[in-house]
Structures are given as structure tokens and as C-alpha cells.
């Protein structure tokens, strides 16, 4: 098994923790001395950097939230003068001002290292030709992956997003062996290539996905269509973008770059750290950032951690696939459900296509939920009895697996609008 940084990726737990503690102490002092918001927060509760003596002491530090980043827009959380910042990225979010991230030269170098590690664990080498279909711009996905691929020494084709037919032509003509995209866009590319009858001309052996949630069923479906190995990776603008963690060939969770990020899983309501294996909100602290260090960032992403060494030989902590964001959780007539749970049911049914949307409304004070899903084959739509039977089966499965009575509508293949950036699976007709 190839590793990009074997000396880090196979460290003993005690050594990793020793390194993390040193870096945590440094980051805390550095943030306290250079970022007014952290100094004010610490002073308000009488916390001093020297009070952080063990990794557990991190729990004394207040959380950082998205609102903190917005309130300090655009650059008040930078720990260095602008002269030292060589790149700025931002994430639009859904409302209001974006949140920003500034990188020093060293930050960019560390970022590329994180990405090169993740691509290597996914099985990439310097012989691969990467077709990058993430947007290039303020979004961290395009440039983040781009420089990591270059660092690995592979070839990068910076296609960016949009114009799906042209993307397929270029993948074919340039002989791309690896595709970088969101899972929903990777699926759209796969469906389009299938429709055009060119799947056999593609040389893809690897699909590296990230930036939105996916399910095991989605990975299986992609693998079946493209004949390429799907892996996913995770990150967020607030801590620098992609590169926090990624899957190896075992596909048994995403290995966290623990020398750069310190992960915690918290029960936020009870302000309690959760033990290994339990699901809660991922909280991240950067350990090497110079431009914009972030202490205990509440990601809102729900996952769990394991510290068990992986079969691949790596010893770094792994995070489970993200079930969803706390703010994406649907509460329908008191039942809590993540869109990913609905996706698992739909993707597991071979008669269905791979694109769906969820519509949430409130009628006569009652929450309603409706799922529109494409069928795999148009012919199904003309056979009324088959159609009825399929709808009944989907409803039954949803009732069984997510405990919800869901209205289901089957629609034509390729009739639901595809996203070029991040997919939006849920439409709210009711006020959130
Ligand atoms: O999406 C960074 C990224 C780019 C990651 C490319 C991976 C690949 P943001 O736009 O700030 O940054 O969005 C971050 O996206 O908090 C998660 O909710 C979600 N997300 C990212 N990766 C995954 C994943 C980039 N693998 C937000 N699974 C995060 C589930 C993901 N959700």
C-alpha cells in the first residue's frame, strides 16, 4: 500500500498525541497572541494559553462557529498581516456574507501535502491523469485538489464545472484515469456518458469525490456504471478546504490528517465529548495553520471517530461517512431524518435512477414530505401496474427504514435539474 507520508501516517498513537499536544499548545498561544477574537474570548473566562497542558484541556476552549466567521468578515480572524497571505478562498453558504479563509505560503504547502496523501491513499500515483470537475474560483475544491495533484506529480486537467458533454469529450480524448467531482456531478457525468454510449471509451479507474454527502449505495452505483473505484474525502472552507480526511482502498472511514487537524466528537447540547464510535458533531482545531488558525470549530457535520489502526497500515484516526449536517436534519411530524437515509433506500433499488429530490411542506399545520425520483428506464412510466407496484414498494421501504410515510412520485430519467456545484436535495415549501 502506497503512502505519501508514511512517517506520519503510521505513527504510534502515543507519538501522534505527543505531536498534537505540542502543536495544539503552539496554535492556542499563537491564536491568543495574534487574533483579537480569541484573546477576548479567553480573557472573558480567565483562560490563558498555559492552561492547555493536555489534549483533554482543549475542552476548556470555547467553540468557534460560522457566525463568528461571519461577524469577523472578511479578514479579522487572520493571524498574520495581509502581506503574508498569498491566497484567499471563500464559501458562499446559503445566506448573507461569505466566510473567508486566508493562506500563507506554508499553509498552501501543507494543504497540498494533505491532498497528495488523500489521493495516494485512494490509490492514485504520479501516472494518473486527473480530470478536475470541481469549480475553480473562491470554492476551495478546484484549487485545493489541483495543487495536491501537482504535488503528487500526476497530471491535472483543470476543467472546472459545467458543459457536461464537453467534459466527457475531454475525459475521453485526454485519457483521464481519475475523476474529481462532487458525488452528484460524478453521477451526472456517468449517466451522460452512458446515454452517449461512450462509457467504453473512458479510461477512468478512480473517482475522488467530496464536498457533499454520499452514501455507500451511491458509491456502489457509480462503480457499477463507470467501472472505476470510488472514494470520498472531506473538508470545509473554515479550516482550509478539502484535505481534512479521505478514504483509503479499504473504504472503512476517512483517515484524518491528524498532524494538521485535531478532531473531537461532541454532544453539543450537553457540552460533552463523546467516546470513540459514538455519533455526534465533529469539532475541528487546526494544528499548523499560520494564516487563519481555528480553535474548536463546530462543523455541524454528524459523524463518529475510530482510532483502531486500519487494515491499510495507517494508524491515523478515521471518521465515518458524514450522515448529514445538524442543520440539514429534517424533522417531519416529530421524526428526525437525514436526506442521506432516504438516499440509501432509493439508491438500493435497481429500478430507480440515481437522482431524486425531497420536498418538505406544511399543509393544515401538518408536515408533509414528498420524494420525486427518476426511474432508470422510461418504459416503466407507461406501465401503470408496474408503476403502482414500484411506488408501493418504495413507500414501504421508507416506512420501514426511516419510519416515515412519504409521498413518492416517479419521474422521467434526466428530468430533475442537475447541479454543477453542490447539489440541493431538499426544497422547503414550509418555513424552516
Ligand atoms: O466542500 C470543501 C471540499 C471541497 C471538501 C472538495 C471535499 C472536496 P465548503 O464548501 O466550505 O467546503 O463545504 C463544507 O461540505 O461542512 C460538509 O457539510 C460538506 N462536505 C464536504 N465534504 C463532505 C463529504 C468544501 N465527504 C461542507 N461528505 C462540510 C459529506 C461533506 N459532506
**CATH superfamily placement of the largest domain:** ANL, N-terminal domain
- The whole-number mean of residue pLDDT values reads 96
Low-confidence stretches: none
Name the strands of the widest sheet in spatial order: 4-3-5-6-7-8-9-15-14
Shape: globular
- At CATH level 3, the topology of the largest domain is Rossmann fold
**Judging by the overall fold, what is the CATH architecture of the largest domain?**
3-Layer(aba) Sandwich
Number of helices: 11
Oligomer: single chain
- The top level CATH class name of the largest domain: Alpha Beta
Number of distinct beta strands: 22
Broad structural category: alpha/beta
The radius of gyration computed from the alpha-carbon positions, rounded to a whole number of angstroms, is 22 Å
- How much helix is in the residues? 25-40%
Q: State the end-to-end CA separation.
A: 47 Å
Query: How many separate domains make up the residues?
Result: 2
- Percentage of residues in DSSP E strands: 25-35%
Ligands, ions, cofactors: 5'-O-[hydroxy(phenylacetyl)phosphoryl]adenosine
Please give a handful of descriptors for the protein shown.
5-stranded antiparallel sheet, Rossmann fold, 31% helix, 432 residues, GMP Synthetase, Chain A, domain 3, 9-stranded mixed sheet, 11 helices, 2 domains, binds 5'-O-[hydroxy(phenylacetyl)phosphoryl]adenosine, alpha/beta
Give your account of this protein's structure.
By secondary structure, the protein is α/β, with parallel strands linked by helices. It folds into 2 domains: 1-325, Rossmann fold; 330-428, 2-Layer Sandwich (GMP Synthetase, Chain A, domain 3). The chain is built from 11 helices and 22 strands. It has helices spanning 6-9, 13-34, 36-44, 66-71, 105-122, 140-152, 164-174, 183-195, 216-226, 339-347, 384-402; strands at residues 85-91, 99-104, 129-132, 155-157, 178-181, 206-210, 229-236, 241-247, 254-256, 261-267, 272-273, 280-286, 297-303, 305-306, 318-319, 324-325, 330-332, 335-337, 352-363, 366-375, 407-411, 426-428. The model has no long low-confidence stretch (mean pLDDT 96). The chain binds 5'-O-[hydroxy(phenylacetyl)phosphoryl]adenosine. Residues 91, 134, 140-141, 210-213, 232-237, 241-242, 299, 301, 322, 325 line the site of 5'-O-[hydroxy(phenylacetyl)phosphoryl]adenosine (DLL).
